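Hey, can you fold this one?
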Amino acid sequence: LQGLLRPSERRALAQAMLEDVLQVLAGHPRIQRVTLLSDDPAAPLLARQWGLDHWPQSEQGGSGLNEELSRASERLLPAPGGGSEPLLVLHADLPLLSAADITAVLDNQGEGGGLVIGCDHRGTGTNLLAFGRPAMPRFCFGPDSCAQHLAAAAEAGTPARVVHRTGIALDVDEARDLAALLALSPALRGQHTQALLNATPLGRRMSLALASLTPLPPMTRKSRGGFDGRMA
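Sure. Predicted structure:
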């Protein structure tokens, strides 16, 4: 979005999407704890605002997102023999995420354990993972991560399934992703993203700038741009 939005505008959009994700998780009756994994300077304040835990990525001792997530997951999952509660790992830029999406993922994970992969609309990227300790994945975020997560699960003998849901599929990395978001009914968007897009000069300017683009189906690869936050 660098050619479309100023740095402050990208941050505002990223934070609005993050707060919509946090609102869904904080209000879901089956989510017991939320941890925001981020080095962003605003992360501690947002964590306090939403009553969450905050762990800096740089303190996980890993080199890169996949290793950081692996170390954080080891800390968050119940110890062997200490419980079977699953862990969800999801990205912060999911402005259509709903409580029904989280319920569907938890129901899928609970049916037979294993790994549940929430992919993007193309079926190539990964926007969410759900697993218990026996099914903890080898994190493969990057190009073609959905296929890589499936392959790693097969190699480990872990049952894995992919869920396709609009609220999980649309992450916003590129101008066409934003155009797809703007083309959807306002009722589908989280309230913070909706307020930013519909009630500010920024939203009006984005709409004009994107008018010439043909919205694509929700899709994209993950990037580290904007508010760098993941929920675990």
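The longest helix spans residues 7-27. Let me know if you want another pass with a different chain boundary.
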